[in-house]
Amino acid sequence: MGGKIIGIMGGMGPDATVDLYNKIIEETRRRGAVCDQDHLEVVISSVPQTPDRTEAIFGKAPSPVPELIRSARRLEAAGAGIIIIPCNSAHYYYADVAGAVSVPVLHMIRLTAAHIAGNYPEAGIAGILATDGTIRTRLYHEALEKEGIEPLTPDVPSQKDVMEAIFGKGGIKMGSPSREAIAKLLSTANKLIEQGAAVIIAGCTEIPLAFKHTDLAVPFVDSTAVLATAAVTAAIGNED
Q1: Which 3 state secondary structure label does DSSP give 204?
Q2: Catalytic residue among 9, 44, 87, 130
Q3: Catalytic residue among 204, 209, 216, 218
Q4: Mean per-residue pLDDT over the chain, rounded
Q5: 87 catalytically annotated
Q6: What percent of the chain has a predicted confidence (pLDDT) above 90?
Q7: Contact at 8 Å (CB) between 222 and 213?
Q8: pTM over cut 0.70
Q9: Same CATH topology for 5-107+225-236 and 109-223?
């Protein structure tokens, strides 16, 4: 298939990185890849030691910017023609990363908001499942509002459930989410739907590892899948 090399700034977390790469492979197959040589070249820089983005946003951890920039520059040096970041909260530092390299860095959150506007034009309200850091920085709020979509976030107890489902005992970060963790996410999503959300955004790249779009009564927008599709499009230079 040829095209630009895709560089993945990974490790935040490792499972989410693998999920993104798998979705790139799936998207490439959807576009006609039938053998190894049909697939795109991908370089992954996995840096799990990158300081926690949410903790950093709340001033409880060192800035992740030095590691993010180191990872981006490693990918550029390896020949990446585009760079993608499978971590929503890391996009708070997008300007630092994009300014440190000379190749395009795709913006997952803006792409996700545009995807909703283009595919669900009647969805006036979007429910957001994300970390405290992503919610605090209003990354999705700003992107959605620019597309004319009202953002809706969980109430305080439900947001605690989201964080527990991601980071807690039996949470997704541990590698195999418990039934309780999955139930907390589904319950929070359904509360957002009851409040008027016409779509639910998986605004943390760990969340798609826990449940599928068929688990909800409204469209479930996987930001990782949106990023994978955009990366393949950018790499091969067309939209089909």
Answers
A1: coil
A2: 87
A3: 204
A4: 95
A5: yes
A6: 94
A7: yes
A8: yes
A9: yes
Architecture of the domain made up of 109-223: 3-Layer(aba) Sandwich (3.40)
Is 35 part of the annotated catalytic residue set? no
Do strands 5-10 and 199-202 pair parallel, antiparallel, or not at all (unpaired)?
unpaired
Give the C-alpha separation, 54 to 45, whole Å: 21
Q: How confident is the model at residue 211 (pLDDT cuts 50, 70, 90)?
A: confident
Domain 5-107+225-236 CATH class label: alpha beta
Give me the residue spans of the domains in the chain: 5-107+225-236, 109-223
Classify each residue of 29-59 as buried b or exposed e, where b means 16 or more C-beta atoms within 10 Å of its C-beta: eebebeeeeeebbbbbbbbeebbbbbbbbee
Which tokens belong to 18? 């693998």
What are phi and psi for residue 74, nearest 5 degrees?
Answer: -60, -45
Helices 14-30 + 223-236 axis angle, to 10: 50
